[in-house]
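Q: Please design a sequence for this.
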């Protein structure tokens, strides 16, 4: 089952090591031209081809695919090659980590709605849908909304130019910092509120390495609603 294979893949990622390595590096933070954005290649490899590569292997593929355009952009920025080469993988890693959790949600949704019901692509992303489901004639456009526990939206779809058909559905990705999982209790023995809220959330689960992913519950309710209305 693909969702189980992707579960295993995500659990094999040394997330802490990557975070320690890349979090401090914020050299290449300018907008990247579409010619060297990683998103389409991520969809191509992990969704279309279903090849679950490590970040290092993915980054090798990224450099092979876009190397000429990357070099042109580096020269255009005027940034030294050494600095750019240090900053780019950190920038691409952040995109990679975000999108592969989104792709995991697509596999989970497919396990609920059925094989072939889910579409995901850079084009859909640009149109405001992280992934799209076609189920019993209904088009569902899912948007993953990353929020802090204060309710602040951290990631949204800006600059959407094309209106696409279907219902738009937000699914919230609320993740406390790792500190809450390492020290979940207050001095009085009660669980800290962010940790408790996460534990009570049926739509999310956390792997031991720190990856937080959507569960099938996030999609089962909508499927049940459609099935009930069509009876």
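A: Design:
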């Amino acid at each position: 089952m693909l969702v189980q294979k992707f579960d295993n893949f995500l659990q094999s990622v040394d997330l802490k090591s990557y975070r320690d390595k890349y979090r401090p590096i914020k050299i290449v933070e300018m907008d990247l031209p579409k010619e060297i954005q990683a998103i389409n290649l991520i969809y191509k490899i992990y969704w279309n081809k279903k090849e679950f590569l490590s970040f290092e292997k993915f980054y090798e593929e990224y450099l092979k695919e876009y190397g000429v355009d990357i070099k042109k952009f580096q020269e255009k920025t005027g940034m030294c090659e050494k600095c750019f080469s240090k900053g780019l993988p950190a920038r691409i890693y952040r995109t990679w980590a975000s999108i592969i959790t989104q792709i995991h949600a697509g596999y989970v949704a497919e396990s609920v709605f059925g094989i072939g019901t889910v579409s995901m692509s850079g084009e859909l992303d640009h149109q405001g849908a992280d992934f799209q489901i076609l189920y019993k004639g209904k088009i569902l456009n899912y948007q993953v909304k990353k929020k802090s526990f204060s309710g602040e939206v951290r990631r949204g779809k800006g600059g959407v130019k094309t209106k696409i058909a279907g219902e738009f559905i937000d699914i919230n990705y609320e993740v406390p910092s790792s500190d809450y999982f390492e020290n979940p209790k207050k001095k009085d023995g009660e669980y800290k509120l962010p940790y408790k809220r996460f534990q009570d959330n049926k739509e999310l689960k956390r792997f031991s390495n720190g990856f937080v992913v959507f569960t099938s519950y996030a999609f089962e309710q909508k499927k049940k609603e459609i099935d009930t209305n069509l009876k």
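Q: Thanks. Anything notable?
A: Residues 81-113 form the longest helix (33 residues). The chain has nine helices and seven strands.
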